[in-house]
What we know:
Distance between the termini: 28 Å
Order of helices and strands: EHEHEHHEHHEE
Helix content: 25-40%
Strand content: 5-15%
Radius of gyration: 17 Å
Structural class: alpha/beta
Strand order of the largest sheet: 3-2-4-1-5-6
Number of strands: 6
Largest sheet: 6 strands, mixed
Amino acid sequence: MRAWLIRHAESVANVGEATADPAAISLTDRGRAQAVHLAASLSAPPALIVTSAYARTKQTAQPTLERFPGTPHEEWPVHEFTYLPTLHGRLSTVAERRPMVEEYWRRADPRHTDGAGAESFAGLLARAHGFLERMQRCADEPIAVFTHGIFIQAVLWALMTEPVPPTGPEMRLFRAFTQAFRLPNTAVVDLRLDGNGRGSIRGGRIAHLPSGLVTGD
Length: 217
């Protein structure tokens, strides 16, 4: 089974604008151009187009859906890792949220949730493992999965580690991994799974973008 894991195009949050609802964050004009270039780079239609429930993945997928109108579209739980819901509902920028983000990762408690609606780190990894299991059940390939950078990183982490309850040290290692393995906007990770669930990856290609449209690296 094969999937293209695609990080969403540049969003208004990526360029420092204040946002209040992580699910409603939209693309910039440059992000929409990135999505068009991505769609044009596909030589054949995917068997299935998957997005998260978040607006920025749907907007990134839209040019691909328009190019291949016969391809089915499904919404899967491949959404962003939303672990600070106490910040939702009021405008704030990435820079303003950074101290709370750093404190969350310093705490390194895999089961900690920051109030109602929060996801724990253990929950994120469970979603990643669930995605891999669902992918193996798909009859056709490739699947184009429009998702988020940290979810792609979680899927790769799930492939590299044992499916056991995560520990604090593992959480710190994952944080280091996300900071070392960066994915530009609309980067495509080519993921292949064999019948036993073992995977191989070819990561982060952005050859579809002109140099002036590369962002988020």
